[in-house]
Fold these 2 entries.
Entry 1:
Amino acid sequence: MGGKSPVPLLVDGKRVDGRLPEDHRPVTMRVGVLPNASGSALVGYGNTVVLAAVYGPREAMPRHIALPDTGVLRVRYHMAPFSTDERKSPAPTRREIEISKVVRQALEPVIFLEQFPKSSIDVFLEVLQADGSTRVTSITAASLALADSGIPMRDLVVGVSIGKIGDTVVVDLNKLEDNYGDGDMPIAVVYRRSWITLMQADGSWTVDEVKKAIGLAFRAAEPIYKMERDTLKGRYSEQAIVS
Ligand code: ADP
């Protein structure tokens, strides 16, 4: 965020890729893409593509991480070296460690972890292409992969990023908007329960803008939530929506 964008981010109310402020990029999803995983999903938000793989519940290893009366959720978010314009070192960065933690916290409230004492559920998120909003795309992918694995869940989670270009609140930041916009607010929504399980913010926001951001996040989450459910019903069939 910050710095001067090489191109204007908003011209006559339209964004660099032609979207209106409230438009989400096209979403694609597919489940069951990795036969050896307990559950898996491939999710695209525009050119951002994330693969999620779930293993478990299985005996928690190393043993000292096991808890006697509940299961442990572990999440590893990683950007593939080829996911960005310039090769990214495969070693985990501080950013990846932080994102792993917030994605885990966005998912924990919906999983019945108490049904799996001494066990771990391991979620691996591999960003295959990064074009902004990778953490929220990861949340949607992880939620789908967990549901695909059959782990009991209270509901599905949808990630949506909200941003600011000048004073305009926009939905689903691409990389240019993320890097040069004036605000970034990733939000995870548990749609049917009206819960927010993740909300972070960069930039400065008025209270009215925050309220607008939450409203836009729920509006954008609705079709994505429906698509998650439809994708899970029609396993192996690819779904795509354009908002
Ligand atoms: P998010 O991907 O959730 O929006 P950030 O705001 O940290 O998370 O990153 C914004 C975007 O910047 C990413 O989606 C990605 O396109 C790009 N990016 C992040 N880290 C790197 C990196 N190490 N090299 C190149 N681009 C990166």
Note: The mean pLDDT is 95.
Entry 2:
Amino acid sequence: LQLQINEKGTDKYVLIPVATIGCGKTTVALTLASLYGWGHVQNDDVSSKSGKFRTFSNRISQAFSEHDVVIVDRNNHQFRERQQLFEAMDLMADANGYDMHYIGLDFLPNGPAQKEWEVTLSRVMNRGDNHQTIRNMDRPAVEAIMKGFRGRYQPITVAKEPDSNFELVIDVNCARGSKDNVTAVVSALNDAYDMDLETKPEELNAAFSAALEHKAKIPVGTQPAQKRATWSFFCIRVDSKEMMQLLASNLQGNPFWQELQVSKGMSLKQEFHVTLAHKASEKTQFKALKTKYHKLLTGSKENGFVDLNVEEPVIVESICWNTRIMAAAVSLPGEHCSSNFHPHITVGMAKGVPPKEANAMMNNYDNRVEIKPVRLTGRLCAFR
Ligand code: DGI
């Protein structure tokens, strides 16, 4: 159903929500667009950061070339944003000979009160990751963003610029529910402009259900980057297979080693490394390594071990343990040294024993086996 109000067909109606996050802008817009074939331009679908408003207003112009009614889906919660829209659309109207009708959708007629806050917060938490930008966030992060909008919110004030540009303001209180708000928009437009819009309950129900089921277009390549931890230690990693062979051939019949293989209460390490410097305890050496490998470190995107492309020899000399933990004593003849007094590779421990306890054990072990020194080729790594 397209509107032809004046004979020239130059009337254009723009529905401008004034709202905060979770007020139901997109749900109301999708329902109306589906019922009446109106244009719907979503600011959140504009993924470019620079020139974002230009892209948004170009899309609005494009929508007006195809539709007489367009919903500009953005919070428009500040005077500045409304001003920006009116200016851009006035220019568009001049260029195309449109007669513009600016219609405000007031989602917060009582301001951002407690009830509205609770309704919108609960909707946004339920929406979860089904949003272009608010996704992969915990509750405090979501609340912080929503509170930002709430704090900046400036209510529609038709007595002065820029809101005096609104020809009509429709009350679509978000606390009332989006389906009722669709009906409120339809009857207000019918009253004000004799639009003769019909709504059959079953069509409204179907369009509203589909809007609630809507899946946001998540822009490819703009997914939030994996949250990166800070660097916690530098180490030399050795090949797990080689290390396992070395241990197996030197620890046959050793009870602690056997326990590590079979007991559920024990954990055998899957990955073997000699710690060089830990952020928490060896700050000077840690900083020096961070500075030296700055470029490689800043270039890496992943969490976990990051290979710094340096080979380092590791000589395994003996294996020590007590009742709680086992480690191999090593020496490092290459460029990098360990700030631990007893450089070692932790082998395994009883569950619940922290790996760093190997340091104390190496100082005061219960048992030790000397082995024929074995030279392994390790690789310098950083871990976060
Ligand atoms: O951020 P907005 O575009 O303003 O809000 P939205 O339309 O995306 O709505 C936020 C979430 O709440 C979304 O998952 C749909 C849902 N929602 C919208 N209106 C209603 C609603 N949920 C219920 N139960 N009832 C509504 O009226």
Note: The chain has twelve helices and twelve strands.
